[in-house]
Amino acid sequence: MGNMVLIAENTYKEGSNNIGDFVDAFDDRVELGDDTYKDFNVVHIEGLTGAQIKEKIRALAPEISLAYMTITEGGKWSQTPPDQKNIWNDNGVWKEIIKMPKYPVNFGKLAESDLTNLSESIATSSAKLLLLESKAEVNMTTLSVNQVEMVDLNK
Questions:
Q1: How many CB atoms lie within 10 A of CB 112?
Q2: Entry pTM
Q3: Mean pLDDT of the chain
Q4: Which domain holds residue 128?
């Protein structure tokens, strides 16, 4: 059984995270035995491993890269470093990262019925991964400050 650890009311910090943000995933309840995650929302997912959950989360997160703007003409040495910005790929459109979210994905839209479906062994592993994908909200896409298109990169 996999366990997905999410931010809960007691671990919410305004401006830092949101309720439902994905923190980590583990196998079995054994690894969650101490009080480390007692204030978090731990979602038990029957039939999936922690590694499978993490793999799905990584697949949902957008590609992140660096963009460079040279200050001098190409091929000439200078003591002035190039300007650089963090960027992310929004379905083929590169946008500047003004604020990097602490956690990449949020599952705040998981309903009680979704939690029941994840914890029971009736649904297949594939169906559970699809459910997670359908309820996931990529935090990079929800921050309005990160919606500025890098026009030079999208020509």
A1: 7
A2: 0.81
A3: 88
A4: 2-154
